[in-house]
Each structure stands twice: as structure tokens, then as C-alpha cells.
Design brief:
The complex is a heterodimer of chains A (498) and B (150). Chain A is of the alpha+beta class and 498 residues long. Chain A has helices at residues 6-36, 41-72, 76-102, 104-159, 178-184, 188-193, 205-218, 263-308, 314-337, 350-362, 388-405, 460-470, and strands at 2-4, 163-168, 173-176, 220-229, 235-245, 254-261, 346-349, 370-375, 383-386, 410-418, 423-430, 474-480, 484-492. In chain B, a hairpin with a 2-residue loop joins strand 1 and strand 2. Chain B is flat, with a radius of gyration of 25 Å. The chains are: A alpha+beta (498), B mainly alpha (150). Strand 1 of chain A pairs antiparallel with strand 2 (96-101) of chain B, so a sheet runs across the interface.
């Protein structure tokens, strides 16, 4: 049968061209797909398929166009000679496409594995991010807590009124707070530069040995009462508590101490004890004095009556009278100490009293070789409400005691002062032999004296103490053996007359 | 002794097998069938993976179907002209061809004539492949845009 070859020719040529164009466009699209999702194995697979189809389309179209061209140009024989090659290339190209296509399932499995792996990786990444964020948050929170804690500790260390001290394993000072600097009297630099040890502050070296041995054996010490020695040889009582820190996080062993100044507290306790003792003695003395006073009065009365008559025992009676008078004086002093006596109170100018005492005593033969000086408070009047004679008696007693302390040759300073707390101070200072430490707590006791028998009754200071207490005042003593003593009377100022 | 005979008295052994001329067309036909089979496999694989829910993959399935038809058409045409030589074409003049069938069957001649218009199957197959890929690209673009949008 005869057919028109034009439709075949047209479809063949146009189809071949279209195949090539569409194959190239498909290749472009596959490339785009691959670019958008480079990690997707399926897009890679589609790219391979498109490459295969492009090879197939190009080889086939080239063969077909060439075939039509050769047939149209009456070169059919030529076409027959090359058709085998064109057909073979064509066969290979669509077998290639077939092969690639058959790998789709395998490729899909690989892709699924990749996607599952990626999903796991993303999940893990999210978890890690969460953990990291939580960790960062925790680090921030912990850092804030640590900073706050450090700040609190630092504030406690800096603001504490008790001494906080850290030493190394050899007790050398590493850290000390401002209260410690005030307590010890040494600067921080001095302590650290001179490598001072905790033992440097102890007044007694043997006491330090005991404490350091105790802390090494027990690993702590608790409220040990120790005497510290300050740079100016001033001593003070402290309570010391300490412990060993064996160190953590690579820190070396160290010792921590908390030191409390109990000097004033102990002094106060001693004074209270002294006051209690003197009050008890006062009560006792008052009772005894009252009971003795009446018989003494009768003895003195009858003795004086007998003396008025002529008697061969006149000399004996005078001796009796003299000793009864002495006893009366003692009883009177006892009554004065125990506040049983009466005294009239009025406005007293202390400077005037002190001045009168010095004028009175400076004429006394015992004070010839003594250099007496007065440093009165200038400015406002030093008025108090009290009994002038009693106060003068107290000051006289103190000055006479000072005279005995310097043993007739030395220096006595008397000074008056007014404090901001409206207290008037009278200070009697001598450079005599001082009072032994063991006697300091007894000097205000009635009948306590260090003078030889017959030279003192031991009632001077105790009477003075009673008088000052009756004036709502206080009397204190500070003494260093071989250096001297200072008595300080403190009385409340009276500001009613200015 | 045998070794000595082989060495001293060599003979032709015809080790290289000779191939008949029909091997080429059979190989080509097998290629077509292989291509056809791979397209069938692709259609079922796409369905099996549930990818046919996506328009792009459905278009690729349609493309594979057209390639199957094209392979069938090509295989049939090659069967008639190259394998059993039931059909032969002669150029009579420009624009005129004569299809000679072995039993002068006009039905076979017309059938063969239609089969020769095989581009009407493979070009739509390629177009569908292109459309499928374009749709996949567009879907991917939309997916990426959604991911970028906070």
C-alpha cells in the first residue's frame, strides 16, 4: 500500500527535536530540585533519570533526524550502513534509563535512612540545644547564687565586729578583717609582709603553744580565754574559737579563727563582783559598827568621868581614852563606808576642791620632795551635786596614797576633765612603785592594806569608794608595777548652774 | 606426551563464537522490554511508597505509562520489520512510501503506519516527565517558603 510519508517525516523530525528540548528542560528542573534539597537522595535519583533520558533523547533524535535526512536525500544505503550504530547507541541509552529506574526502590530506602538519620540528628540537636540552654540557665543561676553568697560572706567578713582571721598551715596570717586590725593593733600589710603568725598576738608564748597543740590535736578550739598583747604593750582579754580547714577544690590546709574582745566585759564583771563584795562588807561593817559604837560611847563617857576625878590611874585612863577615840574613828569610817552616816549635799566645784586639797597638802612635810602638778579642766565649771568635805577627803586619801607609793620622792599629777557624756573625771596619777596585779582586786576592801602595821587602817580607799558610790560615781584604778598608778574618779556633772 | 603433541602439532580451535545478524535486533528488543519493565516497576514503586498522593509523582507515573506504550509500539514495529520481516518500506518518491506486507494485508500496513508515528507516545511521555518535575520543584519551593516563614 502506498502512504504519504509526510506525517511520518513531520512527526519524526518535530518529535525528535521536541524530545531533546523537553529532555533538556526536564534535566534543568531536576537540577533545580537537586539544588533546593541537596541532601535528598530522591532528587539525586531524579537527576540521574533525567540525565539518562537526555542521553536517550539526544541519541535517538540524532539518529532519527539523520535517518530522515539521508532517506529524503536518497542516501538510504548510507543510512543502512550507520543505522546499526545508531540503534546500538539507542539501545544502550534506554537500557541505561531502565537501569537507573530500577534503582529507585534501593534509592528510596537509602533516602529514608538518610531522612530518618537526619530526623534523629535534628531531634538530638534540639535536645542538645535544650540541654545547652538549660545548662546555660543553670550556670547563670548558680553564678548569681555564688556571687550573692560570696557577697554575703564578704560582707560578714568585712562588717563583723569580731575578728575573723584565716591563717595558712603554719599559722601565718593570710586574711584578717577590719575588726581584727583594730583588735590586734597591727596593719594588714604589716601582718602579711612580716609573715606574722597567730601566736604573735599572744601575750604568753606558752599559752600559744598550748592553744596550737590543742587545735592540732582536737582540730578545733572553743571559747578559749587568752590575753593578747598589742603593739604598745597594752594587754586585752579575748575569747578565741578556731578550726582547721583541710581545703577543698585544690585549696591548701588553713586555720580559721574568730576572736572576740571580752576585755571590757571581764573588767565589768570584776567591778560588779567587787561592788557586790563591798556592798556585803558594807552591810556587815554597818552592823558591827552600830553594835560597837554604843559600848564605845559608854566606855569613853565613863573614862572621861573618871578622868575628871583625881585618880592614881589617870595615865592609864588617858591611854584608854586615846584608844577608844581611835576605835570611834574606825567605827565612824566604817559607818561612812557603809553609807550609814549622814551628809548634806550641795553644788560643789571640783576644781575648787582639788585646788584646796593641793594647797592643804603641799604644806605637809611629807610632800616636800614631791613634785605635784595640777591640770584643771578649763572652760565651763565642773559642778557636781555632792558633799564637799567628803569629796575632799577622798581626794586627800588618794594623794596621800600616791605620796606613799612614790615613797616621799616622785611626781604626782592631778587632773580634772569633763567628758562629752557629762561626766567629770578626777585623775590622780603617780610614778611610784605601782600595785601588784594580785592586789588590784582587793584595794577597795575594808581593812586591806599593804602598809606596815600601825601605819594604815586599810579603810581609806574603801571609805573613798563608799563616798563616790553615794555620789552616783565610779572609781577605777590602772596600775603597772614599777611604772605607777592612776586613780580615776568619775562623777555625774550638774548643769543646773552654768 | 600429550603436551608434546599439542605443542608440536597445533590446529584451529575456533575459540571465538560467531554472531548471527539477528542478535542486534534481539538485543534492541530486549532493551525495549527492559525499559518497559523498569517503567512498570517505577509505577508500582511510586504507588507502593504512597508518592502518588503528590501531583508531581502522579505525572511521573503517567509519563512512565506513556513510555510503556511507546516501548510496546516500538517493540511491535521492530518485530514486524526487523524480526519476522512481515513489513517492508520502499520510498517511491518524495512524500510517498510503499508499505509492503508479507500477505498484502492492508490492516497490517495501516497498523504499521500508525506504529511508525511513535513520537506521538514518547513526546507526551517526556512532556509528562517535565510537568511532573516542574510540579515537584514548585512543591519543594512552597515547602521551603513555609519553613522560612516564622
Amino acid at each position: 500500500m502506498i502512504f504519504s510519508s509526510i506525517p511520518i517525516l513531520m512527526v519524526d523530525v518535530a518529535g525528535s527535536v521536541a524530545m531533546v528540548v523537553i529532555a533538556l528542560l526536564s534535566l534543568y528542573k531536576a537540577t533545580r530540585l537537586r539544588e533546593m534539597d541537596p541532601d535528598n537522595a530522591v532528587s539525586l535519583y531524579l537527576l540521574w533519570i533525567c540525565v539518562g533520558f537526555t542521553i536517550f533523547a539526544v541519541s535517538r533524535s540524532f539518529g532519527h533526524i539523520l535517518k530522515q535526512f539521508l532517506i529524503v536525500t536518497a542516501n538510504t544505503e548510507t543510512w543502512h550502513s550507520i543505522s546499526s550504530y545508531s540503534g546500538s547507541v539507542n539501545t544502550v541509552s534506554f537500557m541505561l534509563v531502565g537501569l537507573i529506574t530500577l534503582f529507585f526502590n534501593q534509592n528510596w530506602k537509602i533516602n529514608e535512612k538518610i531522612l530518618a538519620g537526619r530526623k534523629k540528628l535534628e531531634d538530638t540537636h534540639i535536645k542538645l540545644m535544650d540541654l545547652n540552654q538549660t545548662l546555660e540557665q543553670k550556670v547563670v543561676e548558680r553564678t548569681e547564687l555564688l556571687t550573692s553568697s560570696e557577697h554575703k560572706c564578704r560582707r560578714i567578713f568585712e562588717q563583723s565586729l569580731d575578728t575573723i582571721m584565716v591563717t595558712d598551715s603554719e599559722f601565718k596570717v593570710m586574711e584578717i578583717n577590719p575588726a581584727g586590725i583594730v583588735l590586734t593593733g597591727y596593719s594588714r600589710e604589716e601582718m602579711i609582709m612580716k609573715k606574722m603568725t597567730a601566736g604573735s598576738f599572744f601575750a604568753d608564748h606558752f599559752e600559744w603553744e598550748r592553744i596550737s597543740n590543742l587545735i592540732d590535736s582536737k582540730e578545733y578550739i572553743l571559747n578559749e580565754e587568752i590575753e593578747f598583747l598589742k603593739p604598745g604593750n597594752e594587754t586585752l582579754l579575748v575569747l578565741i574559737t578556731g578550726g582547721v580547714d583541710y581545703g577543698a577544690f585544690g585549696c591548701a590546709k588553713s586555720y580559721h579563727f574568730i576572736i572576740k574582745n571580752v576585755n571590757e566585759k571581764r573588767q565589768m564583771e570584776r567591778q560588779i563582783a567587787q561592788a557586790d563584795k563591798l556592798a556585803a562588807l558594807g552591810e556587815l561593817s554597818a552592823g558591827v559598827a552600830h553594835e560597837i559604837n554604843n559600848p564605845l560611847g559608854i566606855i569613853l563617857g565613863y573614862t572621861q568621868l573618871l578622868l575628871k576625878e583625881e585618880s592614881k590611874h589617870k595615865d592609864d585612863l588617858k591611854i584608854i581614852e586615846k584608844h577608844v577615840q581611835t576605835c570611834k574613828t574606825v567605827v565612824s569610817d566604817l559607818l561612812s563606808f557603809s553609807r550609814k552616816g549622814s551628809s548634806e549635799m550641795g553644788i560643789v566645784d571640783i576644781n575648787k576642791v582639788v585646788d584646796g586639797v593641793i594647797k592643804f597638802l603641799s604644806n605637809h612635810s611629807d610632800f616636800r620632795n614631791i613634785e605635784m602638778s595640777l591640770n584643771p579642766h578649763t572652760g565651763d565649771m565642773l559642778n557636781i551635786l555632792g558633799n564637799e568635805q567628803e569629796l575632799a577627803q577622798v581626794i586627800i586619801n588618794l594623794v596621800i596614797n600616791a605620796c606613799h607609793a612614790v615613797e616621799g620622792k616622785g611626781k604626782i599629777d592631778i587632773a580634772t576633765q569633763k567628758t562629752k557624756q557629762d561626766k567629770i573625771l578626777i585623775m590622780v596619777k603617780d610614778n611610784g612603785k605601782g600595785i601588784e596585779k594580785k592586789n588590784l582586786s582587793k584595794i577597795f576592801d575594808p581593812f586591806f592594806t599593804t602598809k606596815p602595821v600601825g601605819q594604815g587602817t586599810g579603810l581609806g580607799l574603801s571609805v573613798g569608794y563608799g563616798i563616790i558610790k553615794r555620789h552616783q560615781g565610779d572609781i577605777r584604778v590602772k596600775s603597772s608595777e614599777g611604772k605607777g598608778t592612776i586613780f580615776t574618779i568619775s562623777l555625774p556633772a550638774d548643769n543646773s548652774i552654768i | 606426551m600429550a603436551v608434546a603433541l599439542l605443542i608440536l602439532l597445533p590446529m584451529d580451535v575456533f575459540a571465538i563464537q560467531l554472531h548471527a545478524s539477528s542478535e542486534g535486533i534481539i538485543t534492541h528488543q530486549m532493551g525495549h522490554l527492559f525499559f518497559l519493565f523498569s517503567m512498570v516497576a517505577l509505577i508500582f514503586t511510586v504507588t507502593g511508597k504512597g508518592l502518588d498522593r503528590q501531583k508531581g509523582w502522579r505525572l511521573i507515573q503517567y509519563s512512565a505509562f506513556f513510555f510503556i506504550l511507546w516501548n510496546l509500539a516500538s517493540t511491535t514495529a521492530h518485530f514486524f520489520d526487523n524480526q519476522i520481516h512481515a513489513v517492508k518500506i520502499e520510498n517511491i518518491s518524495f512524500g510517498k512510501i510503499k508499505i509492503i506486507t508479507s500477505n498484502d494485508s492492508s490492516v497490517l500496513a495501516w497498523f504499521y503506519y500508525v506504529l511508525k508515528l511513535d513520537h506521538l507516545l514518547c513526546v507526551p511521555a517526556m512532556v509528562l516527565l517535565y510537568k511532573g518535575l516542574s510540579t515537584l520543584v514548585a512543591e519543594q519551593k512552597t515547602s521551603l517558603t513555609k519553613q522560612d516563614t516564622p
